[in-house]
Specification:
Pfam families: adh_short_C2. It comes from Pseudomonas deceptionensis. 44% of the residues lie in helices and 15% in strands. The protein has seven helices and seven strands. The chain has a seven-stranded parallel sheet with strand order 3-2-1-4-5-6-7, sandwiched between helices. Strand 5, helix 5 and strand 6 form a beta-alpha-beta unit.
């Protein structure tokens, strides 16, 4: 049976790694992100390896536009088997709470909390009706402890995402729908490279495994959580952190 995965923020970083991993497993892949050109570029690369992939350009914070995209997905594709919410922004790095701009705080919460919530709302009715489905939300170690880079806004948003994951998992477990979160530490992604630059690798010594996580390693964990191999796992926030929180 063909399976369909929707990946938000799917044209870069962890989302892009997920697109490649799920495509290799035979999934039909839908990429939802604001950047249409990047969506198309990734889809063409996936087509070249024989995968079925489609891109939808949408601002994930826009509830009206997002609803329209998911209606289009419902009309033109099989039911969504997996939703991977990998969109996210850091906000103002290394900024004290007293100096944090209101509009940036609002943008962080809209992107990191409300957008995943809207996406979950879009797919859960059909998953509940079918009695199956899996959602994985990409949180962060900042969902389990304070962020050393993003400050209060990023930390609050990722704590909220973990809480939302747990609450929804309890609600939808009786319907056969599983909802989990992953909580990566530092990962080699464009966002972290923009923040740290060449200093990113120097942070490796803070991790017991003595290296920075590769985005593919997070994607592998996400795939496992989404797959039937994790059929009795729901409501968890799994660290992918090289042993840091241990």
């Amino acid at each position: 049976m063909n399976k369909l995965v929707v990946i938000t923020g799917g044209n870069s970083g962890i989302g892009e790694a997920c697109a490649w991993r799920f495509a290799r497993e035979g999934y039909e892949v839908i990429i939802c992100s604001r950047r249409e050109a990047k969506n198309q570029e990734l889809c063409e690369s996936l087509h070249a390896m024989g995968a079925r992939a489609h891109g939808y350009a949408v601002d994930m914070r826009d509830s009206v536009a997002l609803s329209a995209v998911f209606q289009e997905i419902k009309a033109n594709h099989p039911p969504v088997d997996c939703l991977i919410n990998s969109m996210g922004i850091e906000g103002s790095s290394f900024t004290l709470t007293e100096d944090y701009a209101d509009d940036i705080f609002d943008d962080v919460m809209a992107t990191n909390v409300k957008a995943p919530w809207l996406c979950m709302k879009a797919v859960l009715p059909r998953m509940r009706e079918l009695g199956r489905g899996s959602i994985v939300n990409v949180a962060s170690l900042a969902g389990l402890r304070a962020s050393v880079t993003g400050g209060t806004a990023y930390t609050a948003s990722k704590h909220a995402l973990v809480g939302m994951t747990r609450a929804a998992a309890r609600e939808y477990a009786p319907f056969g729908v599983r909802i989990n979160a992953v909580c990566p530490g530092f990962v080699k992604t464009p966002m972290l490279e923009d923040i740290f630059g060449q200093e990113l690798e120097q942070a490796a010594s803070t991790y017991p495994l003595n290296r920075i996580c590769e985005k593919e390693e997070v994607a592998n964990t996400i795939y496992w959580l989404a797959s039937d191999e994790a059929s009795y796992v729901t409501g968890i926030a799994m660290p992918v952190d090289g042993g840091l929180v241990a």
